[in-house]
């Protein structure tokens, strides 16, 4: 599965056209509102449609399988995203949507590693040096990711605590204040913990409001 641009051309039994032109022919009953994943403010819902296209780029000697164009539409703005999908066997729409969600989580991990541990800041010129830099960066990212994951698991057992799970970015911010032998000037550790607690509590309230709004406006159609 790969994301494609709006001018990407696909072939259907009716001919070849861009994905932007093809989406105009999708009937309203073909759209399904499905849960895509969970964000900072609750579950995300989008409208999805799938169009079977011809696998015109399959190399000779390979199985044709199922080739499809997956379309995601934002339920408020109407913004469209397109994905070119292939599978060895026929799969339903909700399975492809689940794969998109997994793909997005992988991209989020890469973005977090770039922002927190400098995954993309290694100014090296050889393969060995690049490999070492990426390894060090990813190992550095493992520590906050594991701690945040354990805290997220513990928070599920204490649902009455109105706090969002600590994120990797929030955790690193606290570690930089609390762990060094010489605390930063003009930064009170107790104040930093109190502010983190306050911020996570308000994020929890925002997420709860968003989830209640979703319960009213985002009815999943399966």
Automatic annotation (TrEMBL):
Matches recorded under InterPro entries: RNaseH-like_sf (IPR012337)
Superkingdom: Bacteria
Protein's recorded name: Transposase IS4-like domain-containing protein
Taxonomy of the source species: Bacteria, Bacillati, Actinomycetota, Actinomycetes, Streptosporangiales
């Amino acid at each position: 599965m790969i994301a494609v641009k709006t001018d990407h051309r696909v072939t259907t039994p009716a001919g070849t056209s861009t994905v932007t032109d093809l989406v105009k022919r999708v009937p309203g009953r073909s759209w399904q509102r499905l849960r895509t994943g969970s964000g900072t403010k609750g579950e995300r819902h989008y409208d999805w449609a799938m169009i079977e296209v011809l696998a015109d780029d399959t190399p000779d000697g390979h199985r044709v399988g199922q080739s499809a164009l997956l379309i995601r539409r934002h339920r408020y703005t109407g913004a469209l995203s397109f994905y070119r999908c292939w599978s060895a066997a026929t799969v339903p729409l909700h399975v492809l949507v689940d794969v998109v969600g997994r793909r997005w989580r992988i991209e989020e991990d890469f973005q977090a590693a770039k922002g927190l541990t400098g995954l993309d800041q290694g100014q090296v010129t050889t393969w060995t040096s690049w490999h070492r830099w990426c390894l060090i960066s990813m190992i550095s990212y493992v520590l906050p990711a594991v701690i945040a994951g354990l805290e997220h698991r513990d928070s599920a057992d204490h649902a009455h605590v109105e706090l969002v799970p600590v994120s990797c970015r929030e955790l690193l911010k606290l570690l930089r204040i609390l762990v060094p032998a010489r605390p930063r000037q003009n930064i009170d550790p107790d104040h930093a913990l109190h502010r983190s607690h306050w911020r996570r509590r308000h994020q929890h309230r925002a997420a709860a409001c968003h989830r209640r709004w979703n319960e009213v406006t985002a009815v999943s159609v399966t």
